[in-house]
C-alpha cells in the first residue's frame, strides 16, 4: 500500500509519469484538458492562487536569512511540486531550479525512501548532491511532503545558494576540485527533520563542515520555514477547489503550459538546424601538483550544440562532441544541465506568470555517456559544474535570436554571453579570529549583448536570476571588512564592438585592508581566456574576456598617506603602474578562474565581467551613437577611430568627411588582407594534416574526435584520410 | 483623538493623476466633498476648483472658507509628475571616488514594479531616466568603514580608512557650478557610521557657493537617511535634489492662491510616513510617495474612532489595487519603498500595490485557452466603451450592467455599451468558445481572486488572520467589486464609507502633524555579555533617542510649534545577530537605564518576530542586534470629527429609490433595485440584489447580501 | 487574404528594423498578446523594399544576408549589395572572403582592452567578409583547424507549408539536406 493516490507507491507514480508521456506525447497522457477547457477562468484562478502562495512564502521566509545573496540579491526560490516531482508553480528567484526537482524526487523514489526512512507528514528532507538532482552543492534544497487524508498530494520546496560549501577553496564558487571528495559538504537525499522542524544534530553539520556556520544555519531555517509556510497555504487551496480538482489541476498545468511553449516557438521561430559553440579554458596545471596527478593539466573545454527546432515546435539539443568527463570541477549530470540552461529559455520563450517544469516535455537532450555532462565515474567532481553548463544557457539565446530575427520578431531578441566573476574568502584576523565570506556582485548583475536594433544595456540583467540585483557595497563590506571597495563602475571600451555594441562590462576594485594573520581569495571567472564567446552575431564581434587583476605589495598605503588617490578599475591599475604612480611587487592577471590567492594589506584586487558582444559591422555604426559614447566616456577616441572608423575632434564631434574616407580605407584594407575562403581553407587544412596544433588544442581535438558526429564534420571539412589520428 | 476643536474649517486635498479630490470639514465637523480635473501645469487652478466645488455644496465660495480655515493640507502626485515629465532640477552629485556610475547602474534594479511575467520576460528590463546627468557627477577620494559583522575583530564603524582629499571637493564644486547645476547632493559610503566627510564636503560646497554669490542648496545623504545601503540612500538623495525644490515651488503657488483668498496660515503637505508637515520642511522628498498614504491615514482615523484595532484598507482604482494593514492600531512602515522605478531608503507607510483595476486590459488566446488580465492599463480611457481600443474590466462592469451607462460621473461622461459588448465577444468569448456573459463573470472572478490573494498575502506574510480584521473599502471601484472579493476571504466586518471616492482626501485631513527621524546604531547583545557592557550600550541607545528628540524639537520650532506642546513616539529595528533583515518594533519608552528596560525592548522584538514565524525560525543563541532607532516628534493638530445621526427605520425612503435594472449576477440576469446613495438614511437596510449609485461610485449588492447604514452613514456590508 | 493586423503597423516595424523605433513602442510589441500573426509578411515586404534587386526574399538570415528564390529556380544566399553566395544548403561562410587575426596585435585592432584579448596562442579570430561589398558578415574566435560554424539552416518547406500555411511552389525533399561538406570535397578533388 503506497502513499500516493489509489495506494500507488512513489516509485510507481514516477515511472507512470515517464511512461504516459512516452506513449502519448502528452504530459500525463492528457490529450484533453478537461479543467482548462470546461472553465478556463477558474483554472487560471487555481494557477494564480498557487503562484501567489509561493511568492508569499518567499517574501516572508527570505527575511530570516543571514545571507546577502538571498535577501538582497535574491538567490533563493520556493516552489510547489506534484507527487511525481513536476513543479507546477514557483516564486521569484533562482527560477532555473524547478527543472532539477523532478530528478530529486525520482532519486528518492529509486532509493526506496518510501520504505526507509519513510515519508510522513511533517518530515523535512535535504539534498545538495548533484548525483541526485541538485545542480551543485552550493544550491541547497529542503523540502516537505504535503499529505491530504494520508495521501501524498505534493511537495513544497525551499532552496538557496549558500555562502560557503566547505570545499578546497573558500566560498560557494570554488573551481579547483579533482573529485567529489574535494567538492566540500555534499549531502545526498537525507531526512533531516520531523514535525516540520529540522533536528538539532543537523546544525552541527553546518558548523563542522562549512566555513560560515551562522549564515548556513539561518539559511537552512529560512528554507524550512518557507517550505512549511507554503505547505499550509497550499492546503487552503486544496480546501477551496477540492482534492480531485487539485490532483488533476496540477497535471493539467504541466500539459497546458507545454502547449503554450510549443505555441510560442511555432509563432515566433523558424524550424531548422542551428549551431552554437563555446570554447573555454580550465587551468589546473601546477595548482594541485602531484597530489592529484590526473588533474595536473589544463583543458580546453569544447562545448558545441546542434539545436533542432522541430516541425512540431519542440527542441532537440545535441551536445555530441563536447569534452569528456575529467578530474575537474565541471562535470555535471542531466538535472544540472536542464536546470541551468532553462535560464536561457525563460526570457526567450518560456516566460509566464506560472513558471513550471513543462519545458521538460518539449525539449530533448543528447548527452553522450562519458562526456562531461554524463560522467560514468561515480566520484566525478561537480562543485562548479555550473561554470561550464552555464555556457549552454546562451545556446537558447543565440539560436532563438537567429530564429526570431529571421521571423521578424526583432523585439524578442535578447543576447547574452557567459558572464560573471565572483569570489570566496577565508582568513584569520590579527587576533586569531577565523572568518570566511563570498561575493557575487558581478554575477547577480550583468550587461547584455547588442540587439539588432540598439546597443546592449548595461547593468540590467542576471543570468541565474530574472531579477538582477548588484547588492550594496556597504553590506558587502560589513561582511567582508578586509575588502575596501574603491570602485564599482562601467569600464570604458570594455565590450564587443558592432554596428550596435554590446553593453559595457562592469568592474569592481577593492583594496585589501588589515587582513590580519592571513587572507585567501579564490576568484571564479566565467570566461575561458579565449574571448567571451566563440561566435559573434550578424557580423558583430563577440564579447571579450573577464579580467581578474591582483597587484601585490603595493605602495597604496604610502600614496594615501600623501593624500594621493586610488585606482578605480583594472584599466587604471595598469595605467598607474605604467606611469609609476602605483608600485607593485608583483601583478597577476587572469581571464579564467584563479587558484587560492594569498592577499596582504594594500593589495589591489580588480575584477571585471560581462563585456558583451555586438551586432553587425562596426563600420556601419551611426556617427551619433559614436559621439554619445565619447561624450559619456563609454568609448575612447582611439577606439572610435580604429574600430568604428570615426575621426573625432577634441570636442568629440565626428568629422564626417574624414570618417567616411577612413571607413572606405578600412574596407579597402579588408579587401587587401582577406583571401577567398578556398585559399584560407587550403592553408588551414595544411596545418590540420600536419597536426600543427598547440598542445592544449591538440588534446581537445584528440578527445573530441572520439565522438562520431564531431569526427564526421572535422574529417569532412578538412578532407582528411580515414586513418587520421591525434 | 481630538474631539470638538478650535473653531475653523479644515481643508484637505489629494491631487491625483486625473482628478483632484477635496475634503472639507466645517466648524461642527460636517463634511463636504469636491472634485476637479487636475491641472498639472498650474495646480492652484485645480486646488481652488476642487475647493469651490466642495464649498458650493454649502452655498459658499472658496474665499469664504479660506478666510475662516485653520488648516489646508495639500498632497498628491506633484512629484511623480516631475519624474514622469522629467521636469526636475539640474542636479550635481559629489560622491565617493569609484562610485560615480551608481546613478546609471541603479544596482541593476531594472524590473521594479513589473509583473512576475514581465520580470521573466527580461527584454522588458529598463533603467529609469537619469536624475543626474553623467557630466554632473564628480568623484572625490575618501573611504570610511561601515564597521563589520565581526565587531571588535576588525574596524569599528566609522573608521576613516582613506582621508578626504579636499582639493578634489573644491574642484568638483567649481566644475558643477560652472555647469550651472541648481542643487548639489553629496554622498559618501558608510556616512551613516560617520558623516564627517559628507559634512566637510557640504561645508566646502557652501563656502564656494557663498563666495560666488549664489544660492544653491546642498544636501548630504546622511541628512536624508542616516542608514545603510548606498544605492537606496543615493536614490533618496537624488529624488530630494531632483524634485524637492520644483515641487516646493508648486506648493508655494498653491499657498499663495490660498493666502490671496484670506487663508492666514502656512500650507501643509503629507509625508510618506503619514505625517502632515509644513511645505517649508527641508526633506520634502519624503512627500514624494504620499499619494496612497492618505487612504491609510483615513483607515487609522476610522480605526481610532470606531475603536477597531485591526483594519485592512482596500483601495481599488482604475489601474492599481492598494492594500494597507492596520494591526493592533499601528500603521506598518516600509523602509525601502519603491517609487516609480526607484527603490528609496525612507520610511513610508507600508502599502502593497498590484496592477489590478478597472482599466486593465483583458486578453484571451484561442489556441492555449489562456486568459490574461493586464499588465497594460488604458487608464482614463476606461475601455472600448469609451476612448480605448482594448477590452477592459471596466467594459465588463458595463456589459454586465453593474454600471449605469447614463451615470458615469453623474452622466457627464458618455459610454458605449454596445461596442464594449461586441469587442468582448470577438476578443474574449469567441476565442475561448464561451458565452460572453458567463466568461465575463469568470474574468471578474479572476480579478477578485488576484485581489484576494494579494490581501491574503499581506495578512499571512505577517501571520495575521482575516477573520480578526475589518475590511475598509474605498476608491472609485472598491464598492463595485467588493461582492466578489468578500466571497473569497472571511473578514470580521466590512465597512464602505459614504465618501469612498474621496477617502484619501479625508485621510489627509486626519493626519497628525509630526516629523520622523531614523538613525543607524551599533548595538549587539550576546548571551555571554556582561551587565556593564549591556548597560553601557543601553546608554548609547538612550543618547541616540535623545539626539533625535532634540532634532525634532528644533525643526518643529522653526515651523512655529512650541517645544512644550511636542510629544514623542520611539521605536527600533532589531534582529538576531547574523540576519540581514531587521524588524521594526515600537518601544514604550525611548530610554534604557536598567536591564529590565533592555529585556522589555528585546521582549517586544521576540513578540513581533514569533507572531510572523514558526518557533523553529528563532535563533536567540546567536544574540540580538539593534540596527536602527527612530523617533516621531508630534505636534498638536485639529482633526475632523465624524458626526452621528439619529437612526431612521430599516425601510429606505421612497425618494432614494431609482427603480430596477437587470444585472448579470451568479450566472443569470437578475432584477436589482437601484438606490441613490445620498438619499439613503442612517438605519436603512438595502437588500440585495441591489445597486447603490453615487455620482462617484457604484456599490453592488448580490441577492444573498445586504447593506446597512449605521449612525455615521457608514455602509456595513453583510451576508443575509 | 486576411486583413492586416494593425496592432503592429508596417511603419513601426520598419522603424524597428532600422533601429529607430521608440523604446515605448518596442515595449508594446513585447507585451502584445497574441503576437500579430502577419508579422512575417510585413517583414518580407519591408525587406524587399530595402534591397536594390528583385529576387524574391524567402528568409532573412543575417544583418546583410537573405535566402532568395531565383527566377530560374534554386534558393541561394544573397547579400543586400547583390553578391550571391550560392545554394543556401551549404554554409555561406565557405563563399566569403576570409581574414584571420592570429597575433595579439592583429586582434588588438578590434578588441580595445588588452587585458581582455583572446589568448592568441590558442585561438585565432576569423573575419568573414562579403566579396561584393566587404561588409563584415561574421566573426569566429576558435582554435586553428576548427570547422567554420554554420549559424542556421532553415527547414524552408516545413516553415512555409506547416507553420505559415503558404507552401512554396518549388518544394522538394532534398531542400533540407546540408550540402556544406560538398564544397571542401570539390576543392580537394580540384587540388
How many beta-strand elements of chain C?
8
Spatial strand order of the main sheet of chain C: 1-2-3-4
Mean pLDDT of chain C: 95
Taking the sheet with the most strands of chain B, its summary is:
8 strands, mixed
Computed CA radius of gyration of chain B, to the nearest angstrom: 27 Å
Low-confidence segments of chain B? 1-5
Largest protein-protein interface: A-B, 107 and 88 residues
Please give the number of β-strands of chain B.
34
Going across the major beta sheet of chain B, what is the strand order? 19-14-13-22-23-34-33-30
Over all CA atoms, what is the radius of gyration of chain C? 20 Å
Strand content of chain C: 15-25%
Shape of chain B: globular
- Work out the oligomeric state of the chains in this entry: heterotrimer
Helix content of chain B: 25-40%
Percentage of residues assigned to helices of chain C: 25-40%
What does this molecule look like?
The complex is a heterotrimer of chains A (726), B (720) and C (191). In chain A, a hairpin with a 5-residue loop joins strand 1 and strand 2. Helix content of chain A is 35%, strand content 19%. Chain A starts with 9 loop residues before the first helix and ends in an 8-residue tail after the last helix. In chain A, helix 7 (200-209) packs across helix 8 (213-241). Mean pLDDT of chain B is 90; it is low at 1-5. The longest helix of chain B is centred in the middle third of the chain and has 31 residues, at 230-260. In chain B, helix 11 (393-399) packs across helix 12. In chain B, 55% of the residues are buried. In chain B, the strands form nine sheets. Chain B has an eight-stranded mixed beta sheet, with helices on both faces. A six-stranded mixed beta sheet of chain B has the order 11-12-24-27-25-26, with helices on one face. In chain B, strands 3-2-1-4 form a four-stranded mixed beta sheet. Chain B is an alpha+beta fold. Chain B starts with 8 loop residues before the first strand and ends with a strand. By secondary structure, chain C is an alpha+beta fold. Chain C has a domain at 1-50. Chain C has a four-stranded antiparallel beta sheet. The mean pLDDT of chain C is 95. Chains in contact: A-B, A-C, B-C.
Amino acid at each position: 500500500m503506497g502513499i500516493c493516490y489509489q495506494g500507488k507507491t512513489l516509485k510507481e507514480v514516477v515511472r507512470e509519469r515517464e511512461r504516459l508521456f512516452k506513449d502519448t506525447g502528452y504530459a500525463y497522457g492528457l490529450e484533453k484538458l478537461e479543467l482548462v477547457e470546461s472553465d478556463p477562468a477558474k483554472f487560471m484562478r487555481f494557477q494564480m492562487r498557487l503562484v501567489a502562495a509561493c511568492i508569499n512564502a518567499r517574501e516572508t521566509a527570505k527575511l530570516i536569512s543571514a545571507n546577502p545573496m538571498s535577501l538582497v540579491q535574491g538567490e533563493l526560490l520556493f516552489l510547489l511540486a506534484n507527487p511525481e516531482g513536476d513543479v507546477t508553480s514557483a516564486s521569484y528567484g533562482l527560477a532555473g531550479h524547478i527543472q532539477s526537482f523532478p530528478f530529486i524526487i525520482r532519486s528518492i523514489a529509486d532509493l526506496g525512501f518510501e520504505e526507509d526512512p519513510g515519508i510522513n507528514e511533517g518530515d523535512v528532507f535535504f539534498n545538495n548532491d548533484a548525483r541526485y538532482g541538485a545542480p551543485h552543492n552550493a544550491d541547497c534544497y529542503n523540502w516537505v511532503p504535503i499529505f491530504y487524508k494520508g495521501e501524498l498530494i505534493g511537495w513544497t520546496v525551499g532552496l538557496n545558494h549558500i555562502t560557503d560549501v566547505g570545499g578546497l577553496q573558500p566560498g560557494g564558487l570554488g573551481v579547483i576540485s579533482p573529485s567529489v571528495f574535494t567538492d566540500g559538504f555534499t549531502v545526498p537525499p537525507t531526512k533531516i527533520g520531523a514535525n516540520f522542524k529540522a533536528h538539532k544534530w543537523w546544525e552541527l553539520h553546518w558548523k563542522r563542515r562549512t566555513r560560515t556556520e551562522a549564515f548556513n544555519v539561518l539559511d537552512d531555517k529560512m528554507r524550512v520555514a518557507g517550505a512549511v509556510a507554503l505547505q499550509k497555504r497550499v492546503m487552503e487551496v486544496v480546501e477551496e477547489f477540492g482534492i480531485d480538482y487539485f490532483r488533476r489541476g496540477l497535471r493539467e498545468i504541466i500539459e497546458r503550459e507545454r502547449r503554450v511553449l510549443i505555441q510560442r516557438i511555432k509563432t515566433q521561430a523558424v524550424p531548422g538546424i542551428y549551431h552554437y559553440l563555446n570554447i573555454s579554458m580550465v587551468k589546473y596545471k601546477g595548482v594541485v601538483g602531484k597530489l592529484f596527478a590526473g588533474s595536473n593539466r589544463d583543458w580546453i573545454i569544447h562545448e558545441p550544440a546542434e539545436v533542432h527546432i522541430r516541425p512540431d515546435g519542440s527542441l532537440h539539443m545535441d551536445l555530441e562532441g563536447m569534452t569528456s568527463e575529467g578530474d575537474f570541477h565541471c562535470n555535471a549530470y542531466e538535472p544540472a544541465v536542464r536546470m541551468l540552461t532553462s535560464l536561457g529559455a525563460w526570457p526567450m520563450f518560456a516566460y509566464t506568470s506560472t513558471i513550471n517544469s513543462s519545458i521538460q516535455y518539449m525539449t530533448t537532450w543528447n548527452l553522450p555517456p562519458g562526456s562531461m555532462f554524463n560522467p560514468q565515474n561515480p566520484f566525478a567532481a561537480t562543485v562548479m559544474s555550473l561554470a561550464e553548463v552555464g555556457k549552454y544557457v546562451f545556446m537558447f539565446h543565440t539560436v532563438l535570436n537567429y530564429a526570431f530575427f529571421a521571423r521578424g520578431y526583432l523585439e524578442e531578441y535578447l543576447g547574452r554571453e557567459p558572464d560573471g566573476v565572483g569570489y570566496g574568502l577565508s582568513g584569520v584576523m590579527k587576533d586569531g579570529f577565523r572568518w570566511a565570506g563570498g561575493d557575487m556582485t558581478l554575477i547577480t548583475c550583468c550587461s547584455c549583448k547588442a540587439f539588432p536594433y540598439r546597443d546592449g544595456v548595461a547593468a540590467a540583467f542576471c543570468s541565474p536570476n530574472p531579477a538582477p540585483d548588484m547588492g550594496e557595497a556597504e553590506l558587502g563590506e560589513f561582511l567582508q571588512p578586509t575588502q575596501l571597495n574603491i570602485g564599482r563602475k562601467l569600464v570604458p571600451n570594455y565590450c564587443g564592438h558592432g554596428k550596435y555594441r554590446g553593453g559595457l562590462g562592469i568592474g569592481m576594485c577593492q583594496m585589501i585592508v588589515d587582513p590580519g594573520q592571513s587572507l585567501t581569495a579564490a576568484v571564479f571567472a566565467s570566461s575561458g581566456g579565449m574571448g567571451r564567446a566563440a561566435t559573434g552575431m550578424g557580423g558583430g564581434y563577440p564579447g571579450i574576456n573577464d579580467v581578474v587583476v591582483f597587484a601585490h605589495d603595493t605602495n597604496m598605503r604610502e600614496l594615501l598617506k600623501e593624500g594621493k588617490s586610488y585606482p578605480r578599475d583594472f584599466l587604471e591599475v595598469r595605467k598607474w603602474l605604467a606611469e609609476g604612480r602605483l608600485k607593485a611587487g608583483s601583478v597577476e592577471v587572469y581571464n579564467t578562474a584563479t587558484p587560492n590567492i594569498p592577499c596582504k594589506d594594500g593589495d589591489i584586487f580588480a575584477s571585471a565581467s560581462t563585456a558583451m558582444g555586438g551586432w553587425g559591422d562596426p563600420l556601419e555604426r551611426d556617427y551619433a551613437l559614436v559621439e554619445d559614447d565619447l561624450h559619456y566616456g563609454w568609448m575612447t577616441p582611439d577606439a572610435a577611430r580604429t574600430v568604428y572608423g570615426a575621426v573625432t575632434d577634441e570636442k568629440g564631434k565626428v568629422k564626417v568627411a574624414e570618417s567616411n574616407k577612413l571607413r572606405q580605407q578600412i574596407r579597402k584594407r579588408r579587401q587587401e588582407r582577406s583571401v577567398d575562403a578556398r585559399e584560407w581553407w587550403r592553408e588551414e587544412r595544411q596545418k590540420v594534416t600536419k597536426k600543427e596544433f598547440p598542445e592544449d588544442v591538440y588534446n581537445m581535438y584528440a578527445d573530441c574526435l572520439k565522438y562520431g558526429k564531431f569526427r564526421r564534420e572535422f574529417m569532412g571539412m578538412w578532407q582528411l584520410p580515414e586513418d587520421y589520428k591525434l | 483623538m481630538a474631539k470638538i476643536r478650535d473653531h475653523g474649517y479644515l481643508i484637505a486635498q489629494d491631487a491625483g493623476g486625473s482628478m483632484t479630490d477635496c475634503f472639507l470639514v466645517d466648524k461642527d465637523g460636517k463634511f463636504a466633498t469636491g472634485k476637479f480635473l487636475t491641472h498639472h501645469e498650474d495646480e492652484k487652478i485645480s486646488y481652488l476648483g476642487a475647493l469651490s466645488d466642495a464649498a458650493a455644496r454649502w452655498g459658499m465660495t472658496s474665499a469664504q472658507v479660506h478666510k475662516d480655515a485653520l488648516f489646508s493640507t495639500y498632497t498628491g502626485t506633484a512629484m511623480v509628475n516631475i519624474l514622469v515629465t522629467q521636469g526636475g532640477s539640474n542636479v550635481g552629485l559629489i560622491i565617493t571616488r569609484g562610485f560615480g556610475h551608481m546613478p546609471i547602474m541603479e544596482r541593476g534594479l531594472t524590473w521594479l514594479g513589473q509583473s512576475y511575467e514581465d520580470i521573466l520576460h527580461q527584454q522588458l528590463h529598463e533603467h529609469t531616466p537619469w536624475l543626474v546627468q553623467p557630466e554632473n557627477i564628480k568623484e572625490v577620494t575618501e573611504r570610511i568603514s561601515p564597521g563589520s559583522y565581526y565587531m571588535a575583530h576588525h574596524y569599528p564603524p566609522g573608521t576613516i580608512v582613506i582621508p578626504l582629499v579636499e582639493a578634489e571637493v573644491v574642484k568638483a564644486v567649481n566644475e558643477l557650478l560652472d555647469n550651472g547645476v541648481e542643487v548639489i547632493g553629496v554622498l559618501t559610503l558608510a556616512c551613516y557610521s560617520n558623516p564627517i566627510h559628507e559634512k566637510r564636503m557640504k561645508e566646502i560646497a557652501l563656502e564656494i557657493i557663498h563666495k560666488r554669490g549664489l544660492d544653491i542648496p546642498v544636501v548630504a545623504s546622511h541628512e536624508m537617511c542616516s542608514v545603510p545601503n548606498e544605492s537606496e540612500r543615493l536614490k533618496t538623495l537624488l529624488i530630494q535634489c531632483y524634485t524637492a525644490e520644483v515641487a516646493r515651488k508648486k506648493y508655494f503657488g498653491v499657498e499663495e492662491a490660498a493666502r490671496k483668498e484670506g487663508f492666514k496660515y502656512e500650507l501643509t503637505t503629507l509625508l510618506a510616513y503619514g505625517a502632515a508637515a509644513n511645505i517649508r520642511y527641508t526633506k520634502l522628498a519624503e512627500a514624494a510617495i504620499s499619494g496612497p498614504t492618505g487612504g491609510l491615514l483615513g483607515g487609522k482615523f476610522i480605526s481610532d474612532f470606531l475603536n477597531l484595532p485591526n483594519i485592512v484598507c482596500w483601495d481599488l482604482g482604475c489601474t492599481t489595487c492598494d492594500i494597507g494593514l492596520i494591526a493592533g492600531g499601528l500603521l506598518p512602515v516600509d523602509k525601502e519603498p519603491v517609487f516609480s522605478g526607484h527603490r528609496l531608503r525612507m520610511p513610508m507607510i507600508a502599502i502593497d500595490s498590484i496592477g489590478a483595476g478597472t482599466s486593465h486590459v483583458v486578453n484571451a488566446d484561442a489556441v492555449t485557452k489562456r486568459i490574461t488580465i493586464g499588465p497594460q492599463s488604458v487608464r482614463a480611457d476606461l475601455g472600448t466603451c469609451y476612448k480605448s481600443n482594448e477590452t477592459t474590466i471596466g467594459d465588463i462592469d458595463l456589459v454586465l450592467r453593474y454600471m449605469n451607462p447614463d451615470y458615469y460621473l453623474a452622466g457627464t461622461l458618455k459610454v458605449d455599451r454596445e461596442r464594449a459588448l461586441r469587442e468582448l465577444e470577438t476578443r474574449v468569448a469567441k476565442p475561448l468558445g464561451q458565452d460572453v456573459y458567463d466568461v465575463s463573470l469568470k474574468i471578474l472572478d479572476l480579478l477578485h481572486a488576484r485581489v484576494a490573494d494579494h490581501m491574503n498575502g499581506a495578512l499571512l506574510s505577517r501571520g495575521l488572520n482575516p477573520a480578526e480584521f475589518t475590511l475598509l473599502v474605498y476608491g472609485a471601484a472598491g464598492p463595485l467589486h467588493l461582492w466578489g472579493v468578500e466571497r473569497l476571504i472571511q473578514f470580521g466586518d466590512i465597512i464602505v464609507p459614504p465618501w469612498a471616492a474621496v477617502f484619501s482626501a479625508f485621510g489627509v485631513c486626519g493626519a497628525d502633524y509630526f516629523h520622523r527621524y531614523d538613525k543607524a546604531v551599533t548595538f549587539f547583545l550576546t548571551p555571554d555579555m556582561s551587565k556593564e557592557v549591556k548597560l553601557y550600550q543601553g546608554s548609547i541607545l538612550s543618547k541616540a533617542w535623545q539626539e533625535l528628540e532634540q532634532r525634532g524639537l528644533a525643526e518643529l520650532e522653526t515651523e512655529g510649534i512650541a517645544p512644550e506642546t511636542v510629544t514623542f513616539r520611539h521605536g527600533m529595528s532589531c534582529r538576531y545577530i547574523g540576519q540581514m533583515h531587521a524588524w521594526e518594533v515600537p518601544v514604550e519608552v525611548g530610554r534604557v537605564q536598567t536591564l529590565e528596560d533592555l529585556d522589555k525592548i528585546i521582549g517586544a522584538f521576540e513578540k513581533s518576530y514569533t507572531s510572523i514565524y514558526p518557533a523553529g525560525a528563532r535563533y536567540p543563541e546567536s544574540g540580538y542586534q539593534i540596527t536602527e532607532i527612530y523617533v516621531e516628534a508630534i505636534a498638536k493638530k485639529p482633526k475632523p470629527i465624524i458626526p452621528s445621526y439619529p437612526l431612521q427605520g430599516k425601510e429606505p425612503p421612497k425618494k432614494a429609490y431609482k427603480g430596477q435594472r437587470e444585472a448579470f449576477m451568479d450566472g443569470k440576469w437578475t432584477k436589482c433595485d437601484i438606490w441613490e446613495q445620498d438619499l439613503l438614511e442612517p438605519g436603512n437596510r438595502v437588500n440585495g440584489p441591489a445597486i447603490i449609485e453615487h455620482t462617484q461610485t457604484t456599490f453592488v449588492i448580490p441577492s444573498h447580501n445586504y447593506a446597512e447604514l449605521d449612525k455615521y452613514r457608514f455602509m456595513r456590508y453583510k451576508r443575509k | 487574404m486576411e486583413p492586416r493586423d494593425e496592432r503592429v503597423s508596417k511603419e513601426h516595424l520598419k522603424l524597428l528594423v532600422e533601429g529607430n523605433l521608440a523604446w515605448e513602442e518596442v515595449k508594446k510589441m513585447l507585451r502584445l498578446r497574441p503576437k500579430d500573426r502577419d508579422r512575417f509578411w510585413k517583414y518580407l515586404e519591408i525587406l524587399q523594399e530595402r534591397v536594390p534587386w528583385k529576387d524574391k526574399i524567402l528568409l532573412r538570415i543575417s544583418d546583410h544576408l537573405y535566402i532568395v528564390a531565383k527566377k530560374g529556380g534554386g534558393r541561394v544566399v544573397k547579400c543586400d549589395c547583390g553578391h550571391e553566395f550560392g545554394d543556401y544548403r551549404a554554409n555561406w561562410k565557405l563563399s566569403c572572403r576570409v581574414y584571420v587575426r592570429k597575433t595579439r596585435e592583429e586582434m588588438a585592432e578590434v578588441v580595445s582592452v588588452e587585458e581582455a584579448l583572446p589568448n592568441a596562442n590558442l585561438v585565432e579570430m576569423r573575419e568573414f567578409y562579403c566579396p561584393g561589398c566587404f561588409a563584415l558578415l561574421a566573426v569566429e574566435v576558435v582554435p586553428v583547424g576548427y570547422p567554420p560554424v554554420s549559424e542556421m539552416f532553415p527547414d524552408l518547406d516545413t516553415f512555409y507549408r506547416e507553420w505559415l500555411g503558404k507552401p512554396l511552389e518549388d518544394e522538394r525533399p532534398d531542400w533540407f539536406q546540408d550540402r556544406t561538406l560538398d564544397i571542401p570535397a570539390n576543392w580537394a578533388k580540384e587540388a
